[in-house]
Design goal:
The complex is a heterodimer of chains A (294) and B (254). Chain A has 294 residues and is of the alpha/beta class. Chain A has helices at 7-12, 32-40, 54-61, 82-89, 100-111, 127-130, 181-186, 201-207, 243-253, 256-266, 271-293, and strands at 19-22, 46-50, 65-70, 94-97, 116-119, 135-138, 146-151, 155-165, 171-172, 188-198, 222-225. The chains are: A alpha/beta (294), B alpha/beta (254). Chain A binds chain B through residues 25, 52, 70-74, 79-80, 84-85, 88-89, 91, 97-102, 104, 119-127, 129-130, 145-147, 176-180, 183, and chain B through 53-55, 73, 75-77, 80, 83-84, 106-107, 111-126, 128-130, 151-155, 159-160, 162-167, 169-171.
Chain lengths: 294, 254
């Protein structure tokens, strides 16, 4: 079965108010082409579940988020995400702030169709104070331990980006870390995989060992070919993070006029326009650097 | 040659992993990362280290001394699961820390509408309930060492005790290393005490830079252990020839 579609097709299957999980981690292998398609759409009021990076920043800047569920938001080489910070400081959306292990086991519980999983994290910290909906559970065995009952993080939809996929939705990662992308897909009613390149299943097997076949097609509703689709986050081994572009993003976010200019230049057309604008930006940066050297 | 403040800090961080055995050292920050590598190359050779991403690295070459040799795979999800096994000693940063060792990296001000949003709680809650945890503060000030943190991310001794046996079972906040000294919680009420001060730092300096009353050990405060010649050589020639440590802890004037 061929599940190939465009990023705009994916967004057309989503609805305002949905709970959407976004794969990757910080500024690493984020499904940015799908996020940019979300930015072009009228969708709003989203509950976003993410180990946050610029995906969260861009959606927050566009006012798309009603609630954010996260253990952190970071750009890695830049510790603090500027749009996320600004949005929190103006009270722009509701927040469910979880510990990283609570987040991982919450996604796992959702995939396993369990109401919760017990985790030794939360008690003693303010995570339980700011999340009064999270209860504890007492071991029925002799130890009687009382642990956090982390509720399942069930998703209406998951968006992830992988290195390769076949047309049926089998997704492959070729970098050092799978992050939580398979967990996101299994926790969601519908999962959408964008990838650098759609290939035959036989080519997936040639590119890496069977353990690189992270996402199974039984959990995938749509496949999008999006070369450079994680830009400006990293997508090892296909490409690293575009640090120069990320710095430009951070600089622009600090000032409303500069941000308007950034949106006009990079985020006002379709994905091809974005990639062309990025190529132009990279060439300008290279010329400026060469000019400084000469 | 004079030993710099940053070099005392690297050695103090290394000491955190003395006697740790065959566990993962998880340093966050430049000086703790140098400390963990120094410990591995000297008195704690069985330590495991990562490349900062998804690989366990068998040796700890300095910059430009070749690629690290991978001895294992530790992607983010397995690193998180490792925390619950307890085979790890993490050294985290702290935007705020209080006298019981409660730590904050999430936000400053009211959580509902923070005056300054920071990273989020990250793994601090699970770290502090599961494996030994220490902290690194490169600039000791009353803004960091506060009476009460705005959001408890890393759990301190009072909060763990109040939360009960499942919180205290593996709770172990060991040390706080700052640019002024080394601190621990080896007191009857588990409040922070000065363990040692770096050369040139007086008790009054630390008191001024701390937003709560620190315990001072009976019989005077010892000086932080100086690096020996072999340790200095490792820091300067092998681990950090580029002097990244001085960016985190600038050399102090007379």
């Amino acid at each position: 079965m061929d599940k190939v579609m465009t990023a705009d097709d994916v967004v057309a299957r989503l609805a305002s108010g949905m709970t959407v999980g976004i794969g990757g981690w910080g500024s690493r292998r984020k499904p940015m082409a799908l996020v940019r398609a979300l930015l072009r759409s009228p969708l709003t009021d989203l509950t976003v579940v993410s180990c946050g990076g610029p995906d969260v920043g861009l959606l927050a800047a566009a006012g798309k988020i009603r609630r954010l569920v996260m253990p952190f938001v970071t750009l890695d080489s830049v510790p603090l995400e500027p749009h996320f910070r600004a949005a929190r400081e103006r009270g722009a959306f509701a927040l469910t702030e979880l510990d990283e292990a609570m987040f991982m086991w919450g996604l796992t519980a959702a995939g396993q169709r369990l109401p919760f999983l017990p985790v030794r994290a939360g008690p003693g910290s303010d995570v339980l104070r700011v999340n009064p909906h999270i209860r504890t559970v007492t071991s029925p065995y002799a130890d009687g331990e009382e642990l956090a009952a982390v509720p399942a993080l069930r998703l209406d939809a998951a968006l992830v980006h992988l290195n390769r996929a076949d047309a049926r939705g089998n997704g492959q990662y070729l970098g050092p870390d799978p992050y939580f992308d398979d967990l996101f897909c299994e926790a969601a009613d519908a999962a959408y995989v964008s990838c650098e390149r759609i290939v035959d299943s036989a080519e997936l097997n040639r590119a890496g060992g069977p353990q690189t076949l992270l996402v199974s097609r039984m959990f995938v509703s749509g496949v999008v070919e999006a070369p450079h689709g994680a830009h400006f986050t990293s997508c090892a081994p296909d490409y690293g993070r575009d640090e120069a572009f990320q710095r430009a993003y951070v600089r622009a976010a600090a000032d409303p006029d500069a941000w308007a200019g950034f949106v006009k230049r990079f985020l006002s057309g379709d994905e091809d326009d974005y990639q062309a604008a990025v190529t132009a930006f990279t060439e300008e940066t290279a010329e400026a650097t060469a000019g400084e050297r000469s | 040659m004079t030993v710099t403040r940053a070099e005392y800090c690297v050695v103090a961080c290394a000491e955190v992993w003395r006697g740790a055995g065959e566990v993962l050292a998880s340093p966050m920050g430049t000086v703790p990362a140098l400390g963990a590598r120094l410990a591995k190359r000297t008195f704690s050779p069985d330590l495991l280290l990562t490349d900062g991403e998804a690989l366990l690295v068998g040796d700890a070459p300095g910059p430009g001394n070749g690629a690290p040799v991978a001895e294992g795979w530790l992607p983010y999800r397995r690193h998180l699961a490792l925390v619950a096994t307890g085979r790890r000693h993490v050294m985290m940063g702290a935007s705020q820390i209080d006298r019981y060792g409660n730590q904050n990296i999430s936000c400053i001000g009211d959580w509902a509408r923070p005056s300054r949003q920071l990273l989020g709680v990250r793994g601090a809650p699970v770290n502090t309930l599961n494996n030994p945890t220490s902290y690194w503060v490169p600039r000791h000030s009353p803004r960091t060492f506060v009476e009460r943190v705005d959001m408890v991310c890393g759990v301190g001794y009072d909060r763990a005790a109040a939360a009960g046996p499942s919180a205290t079972r593996f709770h172990d906040v060991r040390e706080v290393v700052s640019d002024l000294g080394v601190f621990d919680f080896d007191t009857p009420d588990r409040t922070m005490r000065i363990r040692s001060l770096h050369p040139g730092v007086r008790v009054e300096d630390v008191r001024e830079a701390t937003g709560f009353a620190l315990r001072v050990p009976d019989g005077g405060v010892p000086g932080t252990k100086a690096p020996d010649a072999a340790e200095l050589r490792l820091i300067r020639e092998v681990l950090d020839p580029g002097g990244l440590r001085d960016r985190e802890v600038p050399p102090c004037g007379p």
